[in-house]
Write a structure and sequence with these properties.
single chain; about 425 residues; alpha/beta; Immunoglobulin-like; TIM Barrel; 8-stranded parallel β-barrel; about 25% helix
Length: about 425
């Protein structure tokens, strides 16, 4: 058993994590023959706010943070991304890709995304050495397509514009493909049950179902983007079962729907994810957004704890991919046109050209660095409830075990006869090399 260690963020990765002869307080067991879901990968969102923030940093620090996220050897090794179709709250302002009331869509252009979003994506892919898979999510159609006439403060997509909105989505996929960005998943609507002060649009479960089966699904099928997978819901876990049932229980909508996207806000009911898997085992569960709200928490440890606990629970309840929210934000937790400031794993102080890697960054690293795309979750157990754990068999045959000591006491863990010191409130990843 090889233990991963680094000298960074000592409360997250410990520099002196070594076998000890002290008596064990708990035993870790792993059953590599009991398999669960396959992991798709890990990533974050290339929002306009994030990429604009990065553009204000020095070239040296731009390179530093891009390598921190995307370098497959020394960084987090991200291979997934999320982009917003039209503006989101983490944009510099409301925008769409067409002129006002252009029902022909002849004015359609994603020129704004070429300012910072697309260049950042292409730089990140160059560092990683591969093309990423992207999820595109709309926050709002153009205001003139909605019942309210504006992008912010909710409202609904007018029924007469369902066909045009589906066509709009296809034109977006065409444009992003031309730009070299591979959109492999698309959600119907970000947070369709929330009226926000920023870009938002309401859909009932039945409206999502009908838009998928009568408009978006057929439009994708007839286009050059038939490979793009549709995700529904894209909101919290609390009512995911109620939201997805009308879609999955309709044969046509179910055929078009790849799976459910979910966020971590408002609810920690992880059993809903397992219930969803048990009811619809052929469908997929993708985590598509989570962040620490109310501005930056530079230097805070509890933010990393929030991430590691959520990731362990999500994956232990059949989640297949984890896509974080903003890759980086500025010293205020923005910019954000609705003043909805948040934290990010990397905070870029644009005034002082300083980079802060938060504990959440290192928490994610426990998974993304060592649980590779294509890894299979395997059974694991610990003889105490205070040690959270999740184990994986990687495509190369190695085993990765993520641990978190959710207590204020140190523990000595017996792992295949080796005793491992797991300090109080600490995170650790154990790696067993192939054939060892």
């Amino acid at each position: 058993m090889k233990i991963y260690r680094t000298d960074k963020a000592p409360r997250v990765y410990h520099t002196r994590v070594e076998p000890t002869l002290k008596a064990a307080t708990a035993t870790l067991s792993v059953d590599p023959n009991t398999h669960y879901q396959t992991v798709i990968g890990f990533g974050g969102a290339f929002t306009e706010s994030a990429t604009h923030t990065l553009s204000k940093m020095s070239s040296e620090n731009q390179s530093k943070v891009l390598h921190a996220y995307f370098d497959p050897e020394d960084g987090l090794g991200y291979t997934l991304g999320r982009v917003h179709l039209n503006s989101s709250d983490f944009s510099l302002g409301n925008y769409t890709y067409v002129d006002e009331r252009d029902e022909t869509l002849n004015s359609f252009s994603i020129a704004r995304e070429y300012q910072t979003v697309i260049p950042t994506i292409l730089k990140a892919e160059t560092i990683n050495g591969r093309k990423f898979s992207f999820l595109a999510s709309p926050w709002s159609p153009p205001g003139w397509m909605k019942t309210t006439g504006i992008m912010n403060h909710g409202g609904k997509l007018k029924k007469e514009y369902y066909p045009l909105w589906a066509k709009y989505v296809i034109k977006y996929l065409d444009a992003m493909k031309k730009a070299g960005v591979h959109i492999d998943m698309i959600s119907v609507q970000n947070e369709p049950a929330a009226v926000q002060t920023w870009d938002s649009c309401l859909f009932t479960p039945e409206e999502e179902r009908d838009f998928i089966k009568d408009h978006l699904g057929p439009a994708l099928e007839k286009s050059s983007h038939s490979h793009v997978n549709i995700l529904a819901w894209d909101h919290n876990k609390d009512i995911i079962l109620d939201r997805m049932a009308p879609i999955y229980d309709d044969p046509k909508a179910r055929d078009y729907t790849y799976g459910a996207a979910f966020h971590w806000y408002m609810s920690d009911d992880y059993l809903n994810l397992e219930k969803m898997h048990d009811l619809y085992p052929d469908k997929h569960l993708i985590f598509t957004e989570g962040c620490i709200e109310d501005g930056p928490r530079v230097g805070a440890y509890e933010t990393g704890v929030r991430y590691i606990k959520d990731m362990i629970q999500d994956f232990n309840h059949y989640t297949e991919a984890f896509i974080d929210w903003n890759l980086f934000l500025d010293e205020n937790g923005g910019p954000n046109h609705a003043h909805n400031y948040c934290d990010a794993p990397i905070i870029c102080d644009t005034k002082n050209d300083t980079v802060h890697l938060n504990s959440s960054f290192y928490a994610i690293k426990h998974f993304s660095k060592h649980v590779k795309p294509g890894a299979v979750r395997i059974a694991s157990g610990v003889s105490t409830d205070v040690i959270m754990h999740s184990a994986y068999r990687n495509p190369d045959g190695s085993t990765a075990i993520v641990l978190f000591n959710d207590s204020d006491a140190d523990h000595i863990i017996d792992v295949d006869g080796t005793h491992i010191h797991l300090p109080a409130e600490s995170m650790m990843t154990l790696i067993k090399e192939p054939h060892v």
